[in-house]
Amino acid sequence: MNRLAIPKTYKLYIGGKFPRSESGRVYEVLSHQGDFLANAAKGSRKDARDAVVAARSALSGWASATAYNRGQVLYRIAELLEGRRAQFVDEIENSEGVTTAVANAQVDEAIDRWVWYAGWADKYVQVAGNANPVAGPFFNLSVPEPTGVVAIIAPQGNESLLGLVSAIAPALVAGNTVVVVANENAPLSAISLGEVLATSDVPGGVVNIVTGSPAEIAPWLASHADVNALDLVGAGDLDWVELQISAAETLKRVLPPESGADAAAPALSRILAFTELKTVWHTKAIL
Amino acid sequence: MKFLDYAPAPESQALLNLKSDYGLFIRGEFTAGRGTPFASINPATEEQIAMIATANQTDVDEAVAAARHAYDGVWSRLSGSDRGKYLFRIARLVQERARELAVAETLDNGKPIKETRDVDIPLVAAWFFYYAGWADKLDHAGAGPNPASLGVAAQVIPWNFPLMMLAWKIAPALAAGNTVVLKPAETTSLTALLFAEILQQADLPAGVVNIITGDGSTGQALVNHPGVNKVAFTGSTSVGRAIARSVAGTDKKLSLELGGKGANIVFDDAPIDQAVEGIVRGIFFNQGHVCCAGSRLLVQESIHDDVIDRLKRRMQTLRLGDPLDKNTDIGAINSAEQLARIRELSDLGQQEGAERWSADCVIPENGFWFAPTIFTNVTTSHRIARDEIFGPVLSVLTFRTPAEAIAKANNTPYGLSAGIWSDKGSRILAVADKLRAGVIWANTFNQFDPSSPFGGYKESGYGREGGRHGLAAYLKPAVRSGSRSIAAAEHAPVSKKSASASKKSASAEKAAK
Asked: Contact, B18 vs B50, CB < 8 A?
């Protein structure tokens, strides 16, 4: 006799909690064959704004954590993903219609990518910073610092988990906090990733995940004055030029859409895209 | 003349050999512009210096075409070491003609000769010398091995440091292998055109640098030109915002160095006389026409009265007048328009309840002048504490704790510069960590060096000028094959995929609106 399964309620992940959309809206998530999988929360403008507030509140703590600490926290995510990989493989198989082997390969790559980025946390400053030999009695040092709150439109293609990880991990390395709009058609692994984050050591509010329609939510994030940077990596099918124009109002740093197998490929440049270089001139005493 | 008065000591203009009319510098030659020429005046006397050509759309097209031709035909094929040799030549020629350039700059801009002679022009030479050496070492610039140049760079610069801003823009662009179309500010084109003569002396291949003059519409035509690959702008945040909008959706790489409202924080343990010198340097250097000026003084409450007394005493010794006089500290305001803005904001400061004090100084009859001024009793909500005045006007606020100083310093949409005055090293390090600004000076202010990156956080713009990081604005990683493995990505960050062609043309239309 088969036991009757208990399906999960998929909600948003904001400020370390799992609220429903304040709008009360949901939308049906279907398998690749068109079968009902779940009702996902259909995030609203207000949900996005709540997520920005949560991200802003979490920023100073995350940005001022030591690099070693941030590295360990990010590595811990990989550990937890490894432990729950069956759940992710299952969701990917269902929603993306791929074989178990292909789903496994995607989860492998997602986990490895967390590890790769985690290792950068205490190194990118060394690689991207500089001591500058100025012509005068000064100790002059340039170091990259996090930009602030980064809004991300997650890749909307086939590899929902890998795309999401590829977009949020690099922003987190430097100490930014993130509001991410998940893959609209395959949002389940995003919410499951939220559960991983909630049980990891990532402080609440550092990553905020909104499911729903990127076309509806992205304009509010692009024009939000408390968002410092906008990653349009998954916005290729939206009117992204309009989003970039909105972002110019507060001179947000913007990364354009990417597509193809190479989209959001792991790179130091993705970490540095969400950093600001600070140069400090320290006066030397005259002996 | 009374005892201890200074005798006039004007720098000679005899070494200048100015023309009465200047054309555009395109394809290595001066050509007449198709727009209506305009007069460049000396802001200290309001006398005309020369007539300057205006580039219209057709001229902009020609300049961009010249830069493209030079890029394809010559500059992108030249070895890094040869590019470097040209830049070294330019650095030396600037040094040789330094005094002439300093006098011309002072004449055209109104800033004191001691600044053009000792700061602006030496930094111009230093900038070319620094980037000259980078031209054959780009593998070490941080963009991975064999980084590629971008193509044609459109550069629009402001009037506050005319030739220095030109050097900040042109030197890294050429070192990285790009060609350039540069537009100087309308009121300060002169030294850029003298610089064009230097390029002829250096025998720089025709079209590698093109200089087009005109007003804002010329600049707009240049940055919106579909033939440019890179836009670099220094100027106001409002224009920067418009440029960011207009390049949205295009493949043009953009760097913006915009406004600021820098906080100069003086702690109670600071060496006060040195801090006072730093405050003066922070806001009265170049008449306060400095984007990174320390225009907000944050002084710890316990030493407020002492600092202000000493500052006022020091300000009484500042000499305002003939910019060509070697003893002048405060020169002329660059234009009538800028003077009107300074007056408007200062009057507003008074109306909003801040206390205004200006040094006693005789204002010359002709020209544009503004006495060095401070406002005390300023609160964070006052316009003079929030808006960039871009003049010799200081707003003084107080604080009690380091946390309050940091909160007030960061309470601005800008994030370009800040200063910290304290005798305690650990406090300086901790405060510097918390300030959201791209350049921070500890126990000094307004220092610049070609090896030191400069640029802002937040609405002060993005991208850096100077140092190794300044090259990144003019380089892209080598094109790599389609592998997505981590190993391949390590050294060659992903190139940004361009969107479909239809998106791009849509954006061009949007840019036009």
From this structure: yes
Q: What is the pLDDT of residues B256-271, one digit of tens each?
A: 999 999 999 999 999 9
CB half-sphere exposure, B260, CA atoms < 13 A: 35
* pLDDT single digits (tens) B288-300: 999 999 999 999 9
| Domain count along chain A | 1
Contact A177, A56 (CB under 8 A): yes
Tell me if A33 is assigned to some domain: yes
The model scores a pTM over 0.90: yes
Q: How many C-beta atoms lie closer than 10 Å to residue B8's C-beta? A: 12
Does a structural domain hold residue A3? no
Give the H/E segment covering residue B210.
strand B209-211
A6 domain-assigned? no
Which domain range does residue A45 map to? 11-283
Mutual angle of helices A45-64 and A214-222, in 10-degree steps: 60
Residues in contact with A65: Cβ distance below 8 Å, sequence separation at least 6, in sequence order: A73, A175
Instruction: Please name the residues in contact with B434: beta carbons below 8 A apart, sequence gap of 6 or more.
Output: B406, B410
Of B126, B458, B510, the CB nearest to A245: B510
Contacts of B237 in chain A (CB under 8 A): 251
CA distance A48 to chain B (A): 21
pLDDT digits (tens, 9 = 90+) for A97-113: 999 999 999 999 999 99
Q: Does B127 touch chain A (CB under 8 A)?
A: no
Q: If residue A275 lies in a helix (H) or strand (E), which one and from where to where?
A: strand A275-283
CB proximity B423 to A under 8 Å: no
Smallest Cβ–Cβ distance between A283 and the set B442, B496, B503 belongs to: B442
HSE at residue A78, side-chain half, CA atoms within 13 A, is 19
Give the CATH number of the domain where residue A258 resides. Answer: 3.40.605.10
Task: Mention every residue, 6+ apart, whose C-beta is less than 8 A from residue B316.
Answer: B359, B360
Closest listed residue to residue A187, CA positions, set A220, A218, A216, A154: A154
Among chain A residues, the shortest Cα distance to B452 is held by: A132
ipTM field = 0.95
B505: left (phi over 0), alpha (psi -120 to 50) or beta: alpha
Supply φ then ψ for residue B289, to 5 degrees. -80, 65
In a domain, A4, yes or no: no
